[in-house]
Structures are given as structure tokens and as C-alpha cells.
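Service request form, structural biology core

Requester: graduate student, group of Dr. S.
Request type: structure prediction, single chain
Budget code: on file
Notes: please return the result as C-alpha cells.

Sequence provided:
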Amino acid sequence: MELTALIILLALSGFFSGTETAFTSLSLASVQNLIKRNKKRGLKIERLINNPQILLTTILIGNNIVNIGATTLTTAIVIKTFGNFYIGFASGLLILFILIFGEVTPKQIAFGKSESICYHTVNYILVLSLIFKPLIFLISGISNLITKIFVKSSGKKITEEGLLNLVEAGSKMGIVEAYESQMVKEVFRINDTPIHGIMTHRKDVIRFDGNLTINQIYTDLIREGFSRIPIYENSDENIIGIILYKEIMELPNELRDRPLKEFSHKPIFVPGSNKVNELFIKFKVEKLNIAIVLDEYGGLDGIVTREDILEEIFGEMYDENETFEEASIIKLNNKTWKVAGDTSFYDIEDIIGLSIPHDIGTQTINGYLTEQIGNFPKAGTTIETEEGHWSIEKVESNCIESLIFVKKD
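Core staff response, request fulfilled:
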């Protein structure tokens, strides 16, 4: 009878140890799965996890009671059967059994079966928490008082960095695909990326004089193939409207001798310092999918489209009229890469593994190296930095088009 009671106490010790591990190792995703499986029981599990003090105190009280009971019972059995001399030996043997059957093994099982264990034990833990309520209140009160003396209160929060680390860990474990992990990173990055970091610079912006007629620019309009084109008046930096290719092409012939500005839409103007996510929200409200980016003096800095924002998340996208561009970073060997001048620091960090300190106003490697040179870049120029050796390969309109990077050992 006494031996049976001892076995039951060891089993209860394993129950409490395994339950503790199961609840503390349960992920947020697992909790949601349990709620979907059985809403009532799943919500009970969620409530316990959100009240770790009650959960852990209940389990620890139960665990200590059964372990002390097992020790007391073992001592009684040994004295009754073998005498006092064997108490030390029996205690050592009991500790070994508790470690194997009451701690290590249940915890290992709980790691692999956390959802199932939580699902089947939650009601028992809740009942025990009610039975032990006065004791829990006393222990928690004393514990909180001592904790406040030595530890400052700080709420446990899910941070952006923590979430990204979880996604990265999921990618390494194969739970999250590499492209999915990259997209999550990019979604968070657009909150910190200024618009001028993804815009098309004014030197590359195709625009027409708003006083020209449709017939006058018809050939150029077809050749360029853009669906939305800015128009200006007096100065090519004074953008007054946006014409839509589809609308222009659908106009009857008798209207094609009229000025472009009569068929234009009011532009969306945004400062280049605004963040990309702010513009994305603006695009959702406005009918136009293109914005005119203004510099600090109110002049034309460039343009940015909804597609530019989507490409920041999903990568380059091409339609039927576009030609595929060479990748912005091409690995030549283990230490050498060919890098496009307009490559962002994020791409350099993701692909090459370099984290380059830079001014908040500098978004591309072209801007960074131009600052390092202190003058207009020239083909053949080499720049030594802490990261490695940069050699300018091609320059166009005083901007670096491509370069070769050799990483330091």
C-alpha cells in the first residue's frame, strides 16, 4: 500500500513538472491552434498563460507537496523495513528517481507534446489554483514585495526586433520560406525608409510640356510606354499634372490637337523625407498611383509609384513593355561582388552581409561612396573603407552606375 502511494507521488511529480514545461513552452501560434480546436478550453489555456504567477505558483505548490510527501513516505518505509542506517542511501535513490521520472523525462516529453498536455491538463490546473488560492495569494504577495525591492517593474512586450528574430528563426528551421522571411523584413523596413530612397530621380523622369498637344507627343508617348507621365509648365521642374496613357489613347481624333494639361489629373505632392509606409496609405486613399517627390526647396526631386513600393516588398516586377534588368548585386567569387550604384544598404546587408554606417539622408551605395570621395566620381577610382575595397567600374551623369567590391578578410 505504501509502495503504491510512493509510485503515485512520483507520477504526480512528473505530472507537475511536465505540465509546467508544456505551458511555459507553448507558443502564441499553438495557443491559437488550441482555441480553434476547442474555443472554451483554448481560452482557459490562454488565460492561464497570461497569468503566469497563478499558473507557476499552482504547479510549484503541487510539485513541492508531492516531492515532500514522497520523501517523507520513503523515510517512513525505510525506517520501518530496514532501520535508520539506510535512510541516507534511500534518500539518494529517491532523488535519482525524482530526477528521472519526476523531472527530466516528463519535461522532455512535454517539449514535444506541449499542445496535447496543455489541452488535457488545463482543467486540473484551474481546479488546483482554486484549492490553493489562499496559499497562492500569500506566496505571491511575499514574492512580489521582495521582487519590487530588487527589480524594477518592466512589462514584457513584443518588439519589432523580437518579431523579426522569430521570423529569422522560423526561416532557419524551415517553418518559414526564405522569400516569406525576406518579405516580412521589407514590410517593416518601409516604416523606416524615406520616400527619396526608392524614388526615380528627376534626371530619369520622363515628362512633357503641358502646352504640347497629344499629336505632338503621340510618338514619344508610345515609345516610352509609361502608363502615367508628369507634365510641366514654364519649367520642367514645375509639375502641374499627370496624364494617363490609357485615357489619352482613348480620346477621339478631334481632341488630339488640344493641350495635354486639359486632360491631366491633379498630382500628389510629397516631401522626400516622408516614410514609404505613409505614402502607401496615401495611395490607398487617392485615385492616382504616382506621386511627385519634392525636395526641401519645393522643386522636383523625383517620382515614386505604387509599384515602386510593392517592389520594395516583393522584389522587381516587370510588365510586357519592360526589359529585365541585371540583378543589383552579382557575386563573382567568395570575396568579390559587382554592385549597382543605386543599390540600397538593406540589399547590401542582406546579400553581402555588410552593415555600413551611413547618414540618414543617404540611401544608396552611390551616395555613400560619393561622400567618401568628396567629389564627382570617375570610372577607375578606388575607395578603401573599413568594409573593403570599392572600385568604380562605370559612371553616368556624375552618378556611379556600377562598381566592384572586394570584402576584407
